[in-house]
# Entry
Amino acid sequence: MTWRLTLAAAAAALVAGFAVAIAEAQGGSATRTPTTGVVVVTTNLAYQGGAAAGTGIVLTSSGEVLTNNHVIKGATTIQVRDLSTGRTYTAKVAGYSVSRDIALLKVNAHGLKTAAIGSSAGIKAGDRVTAVGNAGGTGTLTVSTGALVRLHQAITVSDDSGGSSRLSDLIETNAELQPGDSGGPLLDSSGRVIGVDAAGSGGSRYQQSAGDGYAIPIDTATAIVHQVEAGKTSSSVHIGPTAFLGVEISGQDVSGAVIAGVVQGAPADDAGLEAGDTITSFGGQKVTSPTSLQLLIRQATPGKAYRITWIDQFGSAGSATIRPLAGPAQ
# Structure
């Protein structure tokens, strides 16, 4: 079975600072509820002509917010809404991991209420849990209860743009997850975050059928957060702005990356690339598939010059020097 990412598509600090915030949140409060430190995330997908919604977990009072990468993938703008105060903030992507489906956002805020961050070490099947999220992308928070079913699970997930990926070492729960819950917290019986809600079973592209859901262990997520905060980029963690060529890549299984569309006025358009062309190299590195091009672009620096080569739909070779802009996260 293929599982649906729980992102709702709308038709329409320092490491030390983070550690202090966790300690403060774990101190507990008589007024703490399951929704404390949980925010609504909405995005504008300008290059796709749409919008999307998800959920976020507040890590620091100064504005670090944890969510899924697929919540902010392709987003040209990101808004974070604190329902407890009614305030909305514009967020920037500090860093993300595609393979782990984790992203760290930063908003310019002070005094945000933080979630109580726990640990996924020691959890076991049968433990009672609560999932919190922006179910249905309605802009409100809902709560679902259940139990842990299994640990260390792997699933194939698909998103609303037709892509798919493999997620592993997940927590399986029968607490129902719906579209829009992505990025929300999975809480233990003490109200501490043990996971980041990520996926639920889906019967169709825009609907969610009842069934078990999956969450990313919070220890996995916080390890990525610490890496981003430390500025340590790697093959699996991207930090800072993402390079943008302005091409939509076809899913065709060929040697190279076939262009399905080009954004008018984007660097690829200025370089003369067109729909139907097959990109064969970027920055001196061979492009063997759409995935390899995505990785090369993720490693590229916006504004830096790169040599790009391609074969057009008539078999003629082309090349140009291209300077990517700063664009949406992948």
In short: Residues 7-30, 203-210 have pLDDT under 50 and may be disordered.
